[in-house]
Hints:
The chain has 326 residues and is an alpha/beta fold. Helices cover 48% and strands 15% of the residues. It has helices at residues 3-18, 23-35, 49-59, 76-79, 113-116, 118-125, 160-163, 177-196, 210-221, 227-241, 248-253, 260-276, 284-295, 303-307, 312-322; strands spanning 39-42, 64-68, 80-85, 90-95, 102-106, 127-130, 133-136, 142-147, 168-171, 254-256, 300-301. Strands 2-5-8-1-9 form a 5-stranded parallel β-sheet. Strand 6 (127-130) and strand 7 (133-136) form a beta hairpin. It starts with a helix and ends with a helix.
Amino acid sequence: MNNHLKQIQNLKQQLNQQIIGQSKLVDSLMIALLANGHLLVEGAPGLAKTRAIKSLSNLIEGSFHRVQFTPDLLPGDITGTEIYRPQDGTFEFQKGPIFHSLVLADEINRAPAKAQSALLEAMGERQVSVGKTTYALPELFLVMATQNPIEQEGTYPLPEAQLDRFLLHVEIDYPNREAEHQILKLARAESLQQELSSSGTRENTDIISQQAIFEARQQLLSIYMAEPVEEYIVQLIMATRQPEQYDTKLANWIEYGASPRGTIALDSCCRAHAWLADRDFVTPEDVQAVIHDVLRHRLISSFEAQASGIDTNQLIDQLLNVVPAI
């Protein structure tokens, strides 16, 4: 096991100690961090979504900012705006929260499309354009957006163009009974620690540098992927675009398939999954492990599928059934 993998595994272990019962969310954060992508997390309130990204920011080198999306949020509240300086009659650009390394877009579907679109260029191009000037974002840049699946009143569904910018769409559920007991113990211990210490300083000093993360990303690119595994990825994507050539059910259920961005995301994520498992090669099992989170938001189901109660997860299950692993 190389040194960078040890650091990332240690980071994952520390997150699992702080985010109890949500190992899937922690795994997804690690994959997004290594694959240099963004993630959309969907789950009921109180499932440690905000806590997860804040805990990650405490363990890696980089700044963190939370943006609470509301109906009155403006694009400038995210990207920043030009401030007039009366003393010399010039305008100075005041950077917004998007210029931090880790950004939490909390309840992103609470804001209208105009505010949501402020994230499009930042997430896709890693830059922000204001007037005639373009400002580069930090090299380490990760957006984690959340949305609540329970309450739909007063929400604005994310357009497909923006959904496709997310590397992963993760669905999380309630923790089990054992995890609930551990959560209570952790909450009591943290409350006691806050009472005993008023300094507010971080006890943990084992912070992972950005350079270590960048070097780990380079290692992902050198992981071996056999031609049959690459063909398996391509066949899975092609089956979403031309489902009639693979299965009648798929043809009836899929309205639109995944774009090439989905193919690239599937490749990056299965490489990250293999690297985290301390392997220097990708297997079909790595592809199957990440495909639901990669394609969940990239497939548009037909009216027939929606009327029959077929969700995207079932659609992807059928996709795996009809496309053989090579």
